[in-house]
């Protein structure tokens, strides 16, 4: 294949709801470009894009695919993104490297959730959008209604470039208002006849044209003048106005197609080549250091790795966009993040699993390479002289988590390895081993996402696993003062052990004044005593909260050298709280008395005395279990508010407020983490997938008495034999 220059490149991401026809459209574009000579289809499991086994089983894209087609002297790189929100990772990385986002609509269904979500993502990433109303060949397609709904839900700046003359099963013609022609198809070769616009369509076509010109003129004033003067625009004038409008997100042109019948796709590709921006017509990239890096083939070479995949018999393939300069075969580049040198031994252009070796790839183009040492998604590779790093991809925070365990203990290591491999391919999968919970946790964009992870473990890695509810990071604390003594004594044979500690503990509260000198402290709800504070140590606990330790020993009843051992004993118990074995926090301890033995006292004795005195005191100090509370913000279509609300109430949520945002309500609530298990699934089923939510840790709060009782009982049952 030829080496394409920067101005001959178009990068488009196909996005939209699952089933709108992205993969079929990509297949048709490859066919029309002569890259393939036969169109596969999704049902027959033979499309170029959905080449992975899991996608063929699901009959749906799960990962994004990188494809290209060659058309009218241009190379169109196509990023076919998955539709389901669980796989938004592929959508984000595709949009990141695309210069134009193609939002595909299933015309018979109107604006579906996936379309709305993709639209919002494109807006957030400031990407130009072209809309393709696909599936026009169905019963009950109402094009005008679709446009009204799109203007309502997406943008008023929609401009109809084509509309179907006969939407429905007989669909075979559109009016193209830029060409001012009727395009008509006879067969699935893709070629359209260009006919005069029929009389009865003239008025409507002109209305759409005027609306289009008006929008184009908002971006390019000179156009408006020309239009008013001559009453028409040349195709060239129109093209320039549209291009500017598209880049600035002032115009979102609408096209029509039946990707399956191969109607409308060729004209759409012409438009992409003629009007959609090439990479150098888009605003220049800016590195994290603030360097402006124009997409210039004569600049220093820099690449951004936006995706990787593990392919059988090949290993890890890295997909990159050339951000500046050009990359040639066997070129050495630096991976800034890893400070290592990488040799780009072979570079490819890819369509699905097919790779075409090329000698050179220019700025703005997309390519792939294999067998790099250290490079991963999000890394920048560049020449020594290019001193910049590009920003990483930004994914939504995870929505679903589960604990995961290998059914066969011997597989634990293999499981971790497999999960980390999958995470490299899919940055929205987060893998973490929690030392505190003693569980392997995985986080993803929804339950379906994690079920696909399980499919891979079962079928590709052959590891038998179970998903478990994640444990909750409970904390323990006390609510009132208490006093306890403990004597540790062992005198059977050999050296003896002896240590005795008296202490008072009380809740620590932020901002409470320090105790010093002669101080009266409470020993219980009613009792009190006077102690002399000799020293204070304040520790921030690694799991949050504090331990404040007062040394109030007078007259040397416990030698100073044993004090650290006593504190160590207390620390040990804090690490495994007396109620449920969770971390304890926010406690103040006064060690005010004790006893030593001239021979038998040693550190271990005082550690044990400290630990046990603390444990005894803890039990009578009104101990309470704390649970993590999250601030949850849910964006709900107004008509589904009731269901979402009652579901939240069943989750011990406290509703904090509500705000209207168009057809949505933003609901703010505080919810215990323990009740958020599978929330994304419940929310999705309560709103047909139209809601979204975020959650972030707020604070620890006491659990209600009934929940505490249940937790105590569970812990007791689990530890009966110990
Ligand atoms: N009738 C009709 N079917 C289509 C059209 N485009 C795609 N399809 C079918 O719709 C289903 C989903 O298409 P697919 O390309 O997988 O959608 P994706 O999820 O957006 O990638 C497949 O069975 C396609 O054959 C179209 O324009 N008309
Ligand atoms: Mg698909």
Question: Could you describe the 3D structure shown?
Answer:
- The protein has 722 residues and is α+β, with helices and mostly antiparallel strands.
- The protein has 5 domains: 6-281, 3-Layer(aba) Sandwich (Rossmann fold), CATH 3.40.50.300; 293-382, Translation factors (Elongation Factor Tu (Ef-tu), domain 3, Beta Barrel); 400-468, Elongation Factor G (Translational Gtpase), domain 3 (Alpha-Beta Plaits), CATH 3.30.70.870; 476-622, Ribosomal Protein S5, domain 2; 625-708, Alpha-Beta Plaits, CATH 3.30.70.240.
- An 8-stranded antiparallel β-sheet has the order 18-17-23-14-15-22-19-20.
- A hairpin with a 5-residue loop joins strand 12 (285-286) and strand 13 (292-293).
Give a concise summary.
With 722 residues, this protein is of the alpha+beta class.
Task: Based on the coordinates given, report the CATH architecture of the largest domain.
Answer: 3-Layer(aba) Sandwich
Sheet with the most strands: spatial strand order: 18-17-23-14-15-22-19-20
> How big is the Rg?
33 Å
What is the typical, i.e. mean, pLDDT? 93
CATH topology of the largest domain: Rossmann fold
The number of E-state strands comes to: 40
CATH superfamily of the largest domain: P-loop containing nucleotide triphosphate hydrolases
What percent of residues are in strands? 25-35%
Small ligands present: guanosine-5'-diphosphate, magnesium ion
* Low-confidence segments: none
Q: Determine the fraction of residues in helical runs and give it as a percent range.
A: 25-40%
| CA-based shape | elongated
Main sheet?
8 strands, antiparallel
């Amino acid at each position: 294949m030829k080496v394409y220059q920067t101005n001959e490149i178009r990068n488009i991401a196909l996005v939209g709801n699952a089933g709108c026809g992205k993969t079929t459209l990509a297949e048709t574009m490859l066919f029309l470009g002569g890259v393939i000579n036969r169109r596969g289809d999704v049902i027959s499991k033979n499309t170029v894009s959905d080449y992975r086994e899991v996608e063929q089983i699901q009959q749906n894209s799960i990962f994004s695919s990188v494809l290209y087609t060659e058309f009218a002297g241009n190379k169109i790189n196509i990023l076919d993104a998955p539709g389901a929100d669980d796989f938004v990772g592929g959508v984000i990385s595709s949009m990141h490297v695309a210069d134009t986002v193609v939002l595909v609509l299933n015309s018979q269904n109107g604006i579906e959730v996936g379309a709305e979500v993709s639209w919002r993502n494109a807006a957030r990433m400031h990407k130009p959008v072209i809309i393709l109303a696909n599936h026009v060949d169905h019963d009950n397609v109402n094009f005008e209604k679709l446009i009204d709904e799109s203007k309502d839900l997406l943008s008023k700046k929609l401009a109809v470039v084509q509309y179907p003359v006969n939407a429905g099963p007989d669909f075979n013609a559109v009016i193209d208002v830029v060409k001012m022609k009727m395009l008509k198809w006879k067969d699935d070769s893709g070629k359209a006849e260009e006919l005069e616009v029929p009389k009865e369509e003239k008025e409507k076509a002109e209305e759409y044209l005027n609306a289009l010109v008006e929008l184009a003129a908002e971006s390019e004033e000179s156009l408006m003048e020309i239009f008013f003067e001559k009453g028409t625009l040349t195709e060239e004038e129109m093209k320039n106005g549209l291009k500017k409008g598209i880049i600035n997100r002032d115009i979102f042109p609408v096209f029509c197609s039946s990707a399956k019948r191969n109607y409308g796709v060729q004209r759409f590709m012409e438009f992409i080549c003629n009007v959609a921006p090439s990479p150098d017509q888009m605003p220049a990239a800016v590195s994290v250091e603030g360097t402006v890096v124009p997409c210039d083939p004569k600049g220093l070479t820099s690449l951004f790795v936006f995706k990787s995949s593990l392919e059988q018999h090949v290993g890890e393939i890295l997909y990159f966009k050339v951000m500046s300069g050009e990359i040639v075969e066997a070129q050495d580049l630096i991976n800034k993040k890893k400070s290592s040198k990488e040799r780009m031994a072979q570079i490819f252009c890819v369509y699905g699993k097919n790779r075409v070796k090329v000698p050179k790839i220019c700025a703005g183009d997309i390519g792939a390479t294999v067998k790099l040492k250290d490079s991963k998604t999000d890394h920048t590779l560049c020449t020594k002289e290019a001193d910049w790093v590009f920003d990483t991809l930004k994914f939504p925070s995870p929505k679903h988590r589960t604990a995961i365990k290998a059914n066969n203990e011997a597989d634990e290591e293999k499981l971790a390895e497999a999960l980390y491999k999958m995470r490299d391919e899919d940055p929205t999968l987060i893998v973490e081993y929690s030392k505190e919970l003693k569980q392997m946790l995985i986080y993803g964009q929804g339950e379906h996402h994690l079920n696909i992870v399980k499919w891979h473990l079962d079928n590709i890695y052959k590891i038998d696993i179970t998903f478990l509810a994640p444990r909750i990071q409970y904390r323990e604390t006390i609510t009132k003062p208490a006093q306890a003594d403990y004597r540790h004594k062992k005198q059977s044979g050999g050296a003896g052990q002896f240590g005795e500690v008296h202490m008072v503990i009380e809740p620590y509260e932020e901002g409470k004044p320090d105790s010093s000198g002669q101080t009266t402290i409470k020993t219980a709800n009613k009792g009190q005593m006077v102690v002399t504070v000799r020293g204070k140590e304040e520790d921030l606990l690694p799991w949050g909260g504090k331990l404040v330790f007062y040394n109030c020993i007078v007259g040397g009843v416990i030698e100073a050298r044993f004090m650290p051992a006593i504190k160590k004993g207390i620390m040990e118990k804090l690490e495994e709280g007396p109620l449920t074995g969770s971390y304890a926090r926010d406690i103040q301890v006064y060690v005010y008395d004790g006893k030593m033995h001239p021979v038998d006292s040693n550190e271990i004795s005082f550690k044990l005395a400290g630990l046990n005195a603390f444990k005894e005191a803890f039990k009578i100090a009104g101990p309470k279990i704390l649970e993590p509370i999250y601030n949850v913000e849910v964006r709900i279509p107004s008509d589904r508010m009731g269901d979402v609300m009652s579901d939240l109430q069943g989750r011990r949520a406290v509703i904090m407020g509500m705000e209207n945002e168009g057809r949505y309500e933003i609901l703010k609530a505080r919810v215990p983490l323990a009740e958020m298990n599978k929330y994304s699934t419940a929310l999705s089923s309560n709103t047909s997938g139209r809601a979204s939510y975020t959650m972030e840790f707020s604070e620890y709060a006491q659990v209600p008495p009934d929940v505490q009782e249940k937790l105590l009982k569970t812990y007791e049952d689990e530890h009966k034999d110990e």
